[in-house]
Amino acid sequence: MRYPGFMKTSAWLGFIFLYAPIVSLIVYSFNASKLVTVWGGFSFKWYAELLQNDQIIDAAMVSLKVAVSSATLAVVLGTLAGFCLSRFGRFRGRLALSGMITAPLVMPEVITGLSLLLLFVALEGMFGWPSGRGTTTVIIAHTTFCMAYVAVIVQSRLASLDESLEEAAMDLGAHPSTLFFLVTLPLIAPALISGWLLSFTLSLDDLVIASFVSGPGNSTLPMVIFSKVRLGVTPEINALATLMILVVAIGVLAAAWQMRRQTRRAPAA
């Protein structure tokens, strides 16, 4: 027996529970009053003040640099790892490799951040690199846990891929490298886009690991937001969060449009 009214009500309650706080944050970002919960009229002044805040702008640039770099590196390394696990069959050390790839998915962020901090300190003591914690150490740390997500996504995509397409290309004389770049990569492109977007979001959102491995003058945007929120939420923070939501929404819509475009091309091909 079906209950369409109950299903619709449950769906609406779920959407309200998820998105009501976000809508409230966006609405109060246009509040003219300094009090976050008291509406004082419609105004864009907090966006203007946000653009004049050098600390937030610098932190946003650091976060974007880290997110783009770590997401790109994670896609490259995660794709290679997922390809090895999916295509190379059984080999010595496969179980250990699979366990090490999936470990960051379930490892507490505090443990991951502390272990990476100790690693960087040990490397600096033995080899003099890295010379102090900064943007480079944050990129390495974010790549470490982001590539695990990419590897899982790519491995799942390769497992459902029709291998007859690759076999046909090999029968026609395609070299393994040519096969990978001209056949396999285009087929798993949606998984690569999804992995990149997920890695970008995770890196942009990370606070705990970045707090361990970043140094003075290299604070990411979540670190700056957290330090400001501890002193009280201001409409300026609401404006910043609204802009971040807008950027993420545009990225998700662009990726969805690109994947739908590729899906429409596939039957024609």
Automatic annotation (TrEMBL):
Coiled-coil segments, which residues?
none
Q: How does it sit in the membrane?
A: Multi-pass membrane protein
Q: What is this protein called?
A: Putrescine ABC transporter permease PotI
Q: Where is the ABC transmembrane type-1 domain?
A: 60-255
UniProt cross-references to CDD domains, sorted A to Z: TM_PBP2 (cd06261)
InterPro entries this protein is in? Answer: Bact_Polyamine_Transport, MetI-like, MetI-like_sf
Alphabetical keyword list = Cell membrane, Membrane, Transmembrane, Transmembrane helix, Transport
**Which family does this protein fall into?**
Belongs to the binding-protein-dependent transport system permease family. CysTW subfamily.
UniProt keyword RNA-binding present? no
Chief localization: membrane
Example of a GO cellular component annotation carried by this entry:
plasma membrane
Instruction: Name any Gene Ontology BP term.
Output: transmembrane transport
Q: Which PROSITE patterns match?
A: ABC_TM1
Q: Give TM segment ranges.
A: 12-30, 66-85, 97-123, 135-158, 179-198, 237-257
Asked if the Swiss-Prot or TrEMBL record annotates the protein with the keyword Cell membrane, the reply is yes
Q: Where in the cell is it found?
A: Cell membrane
